[in-house]
Structures are given as C-alpha cells and as structure tokens.
Amino acid sequence: MGINRLLNGIPKDENLNINFLKKQLRGINVELLDLKDGYLGFSTPNKIALNKNLAKQSPSLFYYTILHELCHYKRFQKYNNKMLSIIFTDDFEHFYPNILNEEILADRYADRLYYKGNRIKINYNRNLDKPWVNSIYKVFIKDSLFNKIKTIEEYDNFIYKFLK
Ligand SMILES: [Zn+2]
After folding, report:
1. CA 69 – ligand 1 centroid, Å
2. For residue 104, how far is its CA from the centre of ligand 1 (angstroms)?
3. Rounded Cα–Cα distance for residues 95 and 84 (Å)
4. How close is the Cα of 159 to the center of ligand 1, in Å?
5. Which pLDDT belongs to residue 3?
6. Using 50, 70 and 90 to split pLDDT, how confident is the model at 75?
7. Residue 6 CB partners (closer than 8 Å, separation 6+)
8. Contact at 8 Å (CB) between 40 and 84?
9. Among 4, 14, 10, 20, which residue's Cα sits nearest to residue 114?
10. Could you tell me the distance, in angstroms and rounded to a whole number, from the CA of residue 42 to the centre of ligand 1?
11. What is the pLDDT of residue 34?
C-alpha cells in the first residue's frame, strides 16, 4: 500500500486535513514499514520511511511525524553534504549539538505545519530545548545513533534494523 491510500484510510472523524498532507508529500519517495513499537519514522536524502502501524494507533501522531520527517528531508535536499558530514562524524561534541538543533527545528516545523493544515495546536513537540529533556535525549542519541552510520548506504538502510 502507498502513502496516499494509507492516508485515505484514516477515519474522517479524526478531523485531519489529509489533502494538505498529501500536497506536502507530492513527489517524495515515502516508504511504509512494519516497525517495532516506539519507532516512528526516519528521513534520508532519498526517502522518508514511516512506521505504518502508527497510522492506526495514533493518526494525529502519524500526521505530525510525517511533517517532522518532511523537515529533515527538505533540509537534506538543501544541505545534503553538510547534513551527512554531521551524521558521519566521530566527534560527539560536534555531532550532538547539530543533531539536537536539527531535531528541535523539525519539531517546530511540524508544530507550524500541523497548525497550518488543521488549525489546531497539537502537543507532540518533545521540548528538547528544555535542559532535563535534553540530558535524557543526549544519552539516547549516544547509544542509538552516534558512530553507528559511516556511509550513505548504511544511513539509507538504518531503519531496517527496527523492522518487526
Ligand atoms: Zn527527527
């Protein structure tokens, strides 16, 4: 199933502006995967990959996640080499602040576009700019992402590790 069909299957009483979302995704390669619970999505220079189970579990979080990943994807289109040099670095002091900024940016972008599409403020922003959240996130990123990916191929395939 493609992303448009999956989005069409979201019940109307969720009150989500699906046409707005489809318009944002036009021309982008979206891959739908059966990922383990807790894994929402991922973006690379070539695609947006999403946990398709989330569409049923929480349509609004699925919607938000797509917008969040769309921000990363668009920044890859614009700053590909810079983005990859950040991801491939083995210097955590260089890696982490850039990842953190990227994630804060993508949450804010999703906040804005979610509101633009639905005229409702949704509370999914992780508040990574708050120090106590940030300190937990730092450990998570060090364990899960740092120094795990060295080539674009590895990066493109990273999310397949989390298949069910
Ligand atoms: Zn992100």
Report:
1. 6
2. 8
3. 11
4. 13
5. 98
6. very high
7. 32, 52, 55
8. no
9. 20
10. 7
11. 97
Residue 101 CA, ligand 1 centroid: distance in Å: 10
134 in helix, strand or coil? helix
Give the Å distance between the CA of 15 and the centre of ligand 1.
25
> What is the per-residue pLDDT across 6-50, written as a single tens digit (0 to 9) for each?
999 999 999 999 999 999 999 999 999 999 999 999 999 999 999
Say whether pLDDT at 1 is over 90.
Answer: no
CA of 51 to the centre of ligand 1 (A): 14
> What are the residue ranges of helices labelled H in 26-130?
54-57, 59-88, 92-118
Instruction: Please determine, for residue 82, whether its predicted confidence score (pLDDT) is greater than 90.
Output: yes
Question: What is the C-alpha to C-alpha distance for residues 112 and 52, in angstroms, rounded to an integer?
Answer: 23
> Would the pLDDT of 99 be above 90?
yes
> Distance from the CA of 120 to the center of ligand 1, in angstroms?
21
> DSSP code of 40?
-
**What is the Å distance from ligand 1's center to 111 Cα?**
13
| Cβ atoms 70, 90 nearer than 8 A | no
Q: What is the pTM of this model?
A: 0.97
